[in-house]
Amino acid sequence: MSGCDKDRIPAFPLIVNDPYFSIWMPGDTLTSGDTVHWTGQRKPLKGHLVIDGKTWRFLGRSGKPAMETVEVKVTPTATVFVMEADGVRLRVRFRTPALPSDPDILSAPVTFTGVELQSMDGKEHQATLNYSISTAICYDGSVQPPMVCDSYIRDGLDFAWVGQSRQKVLCHSGDNITIDWGYLYAAAPAGMWKFDVSDAVIALSGEFNVSSRPVRSWWMQGYDDISSVDYFGTFCRAWYMRNGQTLPGMMVRLAANYGELNRECDELDRDVIAEAQKIGGDDYALIASTAWRHTFAAHKLIATPSGEMAMLSKENDSNGCIGTVDVSYPSIPLFLRFCPELVNALCRPVLEFASMPVWEFDFAPHDVGRYPHATGQVYACKRYAAGNGEVYPPYYLYPAGCDIYEDRNQMPVEECGNMLIMMETAVSYGAGDELIRQYMPLIGKWVGYLDRYGDDPGEQLCTDDFAGHLSRNINLSAKAIVGIACVGRIMRRVGREEEAARWADRAHEMAEGWLKRAAGENGTALTFDGKGWSMKYNLIWDRVLDLDLLPEDFYRNEATSYLEKMNGYGLPLDSRADYTKSDWLVWSASLSPDRDTFCRLIAPLAKYLRETETRVPFSDWYDTKTGRYVEFIARSVQGGVYMPMLTGNRK
User: Fold this and answer.
1) Cβ of 289: how many Cβ atoms within 10 Å?
2) CA R_g for the chain
3) Exposure string for 422-450, b = 16+ CB within 10 A, e = fewer
4) Which pLDDT score, from 0 to 100, does residue 1 have?
């Protein structure tokens, strides 16, 4: 854990499992206000502690006095608050067992809440703890539809559940909306808590004799979305359900292993934080801890109709697309370090769509639909403009020749480079090579595109599309070079030595020319006409993968040049504006020749987390002068802050 008693981040993750089951506290304490979905919609969790007849508030907003918060800690898998009132200390821990070693547990939308009560004044106290979860979690908007609820005992657990009486599974699509189907569950060891469920809340109540010896208890909450993703016409369920498992059944399994799960999570927390502190001290430990659950919860891990693993991101607060390639690309450092097979799972839906007749381009697609409907790219579509909440038609069924996508707003060099880098790095870090062997024709097509257009890109969009089209983008050219070098590695893996040598030579040839043409007044320029400057985050793979494209002194000079361009809350993305991207900032800092330079570059990002007035889940797009977010909330790209952990961990 970081050294301070009270970790401070813009919004604390409480129940954070996937894009829909995602509840946060946008304040410094559990009593700062109402809990919300990442969209800002109120999804209230309430908690009160009655101590010797007097009621205190420990969670959410009400007319009761708030307990004093004495400690706040954020770890990769948990958020912990310690509060005191009337001689009693209450410790509340929200823990999501986001364990990359077990995809079943990782994909299960279940979060534990643990409580510990202890007397701090040497006296004994009688306490009643009350907790409730609003059924607003089950619907989108502020108008409650008709609800149905019930409770039962199963396998030693008390269960309560609630959901809409009319289930409209996968009934909408879009951004900044919440789920509008499925069932909310709560469960705890039978007899430990009194359950009360209605169309408004699931409530729990427990009685405790509080002394100097801590007394502990827990419950869990989960969400059954019935079907998670429309995957090219098949309604697919979460990965853990692939063999007939149900959410209540999974909750029974998790409850039976509660102690071991906590030990595994504690061990993961210790290891991740220790590694982060070694790399970048308390600042980097806070950044890494803030990003862990955040990153996993921006995805849905499903089983495809053929039983394979597909991991699909949602572009939270940036258009709602599903499986966006240039959102997956920045997220992969976390997965490469801890579960590289998930990078293959990110690539699989894109490769499948790119092989369909409707996708006639010689470059990679941008996305595979709009969440939760993976039914074909919607970005740059010339046909139907679906409103927020509406569902796009099944573009994946269109035959060739329909001309449904415009050329100008595609991201050809960007997405080709992203896919090729992701496919190679997945194998490099230990994932299987079946995808590269299966999709060699696409790999050949995409590397050919980079060969033709990547050396000095024309006017194209890149992943930073909010900045608009840019001609002769030096950083985009760097991505093309790295992508081609990765294909050299891929060809060697499949035994095509002649092609491997060809692409490796081509990448080095391009890198040599790039180095001569990229120079600016201080570091590298923004475009090949020598104007401006920009982060060269795409080059980090040269160092991570030992591609040997550019000399070490180049990286030393480039990273050092960034120090002179920083504002109070970080290094701007480029010379055109004061805003930055947190993922690219950390990638650029990872080019540093030494720990001191790295720490100086990432310190303002930690400062942003501790000081920003914008209380939204870790935004990756914010202003480096004001510390206020610009846009983008709770996006998967924050997995990119794990880039510094990659060096030295390849297999």
Assistant:
1) 27
2) 25
3) bbbbbbbbebeeebbeebeebbebbbebb
4) 37
